[in-house]
């Protein structure tokens, strides 16, 4: 059996994870993967029940799981708590506790939703890229100084460092992922200025020698930011450092036009973690209007990357394509002339198309 820990969290989290589990159960009937689900608490819901956002019991269960499916955490109710009790601490604790070293964010442009993109349709039609971001190193985790006096003036600093094994690990993941896709990796750095980027570029080049079937090119981050809006279709897999990935993945996320459809994966050595990129959307929670597709597509990533069930992953992705092509829309992507459906209805419609 393959054990999946489901963490619904707060706000719309329970609704979207419920939809994704329904889809996974239907997939399991068809593909006989042997999925087993267990639900655990995290975020505000865990604080209310256990007095802490990430109970040890949740983290332990996740460590033993084949994969984790996560909804979202957070909400006004918990905004004024002391930092260590705030819902987002659950996410930091899970990332750290599970050693999630890479974040994968696919950006796919759906033909049916192309008008939602802020870019011209001819620029984005057919766009399908994946950003692989290093998640536990670099400047976000380096030494820092909030304030010191230097040469008579106050200053602050943050240090970036990357080791060879850290860059090797993320690069291998990017190349392995590219082999499942169109076989192209773009490594993004600032090697004209930064020493860490020069090491990054050297290591990426070394790792690439083991993947002769994958094409590699290098871009400076400023150029990459520009190319993402000028010609996003040139990209297949982008691999980059923590800070550059943070910025580029948010830039890229708007290309597709809808936050509700964006999945993500965070990969660890022991297990991996799958969640939509949106938050807990408290403004629409409990109303049966949230778009569950981002979480359902995260479940497809779970099948692909954690369970090596590529056919099952593709079946989910094409069921979503068909649902959109057949004109069904949740409120966030609805426009005149289409069929408006709620969260539960769209989940049924997707299940029917599996
Ligand atoms: P959000 O992503 O929750 O919502 C932004 C807007 O997009 C809202 O109007 C919401 O209704 C809409 N929206 C988001 N997902 C949608 C979907 N699937 N279908 C339809 N509409 C959707 O971001 P926010 O409002 O900035 O944050 C709300 C809460 O979520 C905060 O407490 C924040 O800390 C938390 N948050 C959690 C995560 C996470 O758990 N990974 C990520 C981001 C924000």
Structural features, described:
The model has no long low-confidence stretch (mean pLDDT 96). This protein is globular. The protein has helices spanning 13-31, 44-50, 56-63, 88-97, 121-124, 164-180, 195-208, 221-230, 242-253, 293-306, 310-325, 343-352; strands at 2-9, 35-39, 67-72, 100-108, 128-134, 144-150, 153-158, 184-189, 215-220, 237-240, 263-268, 272-276, 328-329, 339-340. The two termini are 22 Å apart. By secondary structure, the chain is of the alpha/beta class. It has 12 helices and 14 strands. The longest helix has 19 residues, at 13-31. A 10-stranded mixed sheet has the order 2-1-3-12-11-4-5-10-8-9, with helices on both faces. The chain has a two-stranded antiparallel ribbon with strand order 6-7. It is 40% helix and 22% strand. The structure holds nicotinamide-adenine-dinucleotide. Nicotinamide-adenine-dinucleotide is lined by residues 72-75, 88, 91, 259-260, 275, 278-284, 290-291, 294, 332. Nicotinamide-adenine-dinucleotide (NAD) binds at residues 72-75, 88, 91, 259-260, 275, 278-284, 290-291, 294, 332.
């Amino acid at each position: 059996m393959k054990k999946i820990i489901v963490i619904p969290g707060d706000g719309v989290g329970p609704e979207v994870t419920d939809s994704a589990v329904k889809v996974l159960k239907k997939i399991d009937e068809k593909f006989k993967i042997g999925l087993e689900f267990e639900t655990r608490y995290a975020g505000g819901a865990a604080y209310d029940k256990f007095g802490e956002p990430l109970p040890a019991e949740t983290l332990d269960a996740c460590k033993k799981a084949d994969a984790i499916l996560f909804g979202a955490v957070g909400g006004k109710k918990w905004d004024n708590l002391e930092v260590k009790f705030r819902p987002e601490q659950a996410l930091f604790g899970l990332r750290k506790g599970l050693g999630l070293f890479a974040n994968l964010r696919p950006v796919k442009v759906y033909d049916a939703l192309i008008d939602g993109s802020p870019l011209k349709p001819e620029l984005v039609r057919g766009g399908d890229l994946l950003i692989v971001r290093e998640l536990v190193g670099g400047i976000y985790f380096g030494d820092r100084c909030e304030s010191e006096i230097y040469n008579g003036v106050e200053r602050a600093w943050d240090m970036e460092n990357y080791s060879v094994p850290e860059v090797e690990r993320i690069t291998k993941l990017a190349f392995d992922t590219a082999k499942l896709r169109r076989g192209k990796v773009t490594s993004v750095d600032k090697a004209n200025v930064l020493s860490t980027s020069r090491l990054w570029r050297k290591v990426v080049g070394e790792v690439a020698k083991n993947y002769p079937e994958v094409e590699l090119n290098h871009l400076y981050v400023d150029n990459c930011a520009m190319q993402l809006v000028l010609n996003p279709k040139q990209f297949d897999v982008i691999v980059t450092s923590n800070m550059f990935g943070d910025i580029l993945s948010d830039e890229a996320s708007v290309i597709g036009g809808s936050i509700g459809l964006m999945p993500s994966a965070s990969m660890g050595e022991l297990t991996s973690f799958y969640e939509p990129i949106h938050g807990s959307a408290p403004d629409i929670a409990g109303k049966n209007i949230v778009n569950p597709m981002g979480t359902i597509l995260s479940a497809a990533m779970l099948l692909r990357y954690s369970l090596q069930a590529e056919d099952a992953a593709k079946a989910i992705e094409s069921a979503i394509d068909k649902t959109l092509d057949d004109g069904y829309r949740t409120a966030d992507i609805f426009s005149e002339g289409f069929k408006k459906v709620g969260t539960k209805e769209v989940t049924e419609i997707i299940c029917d198309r599996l």
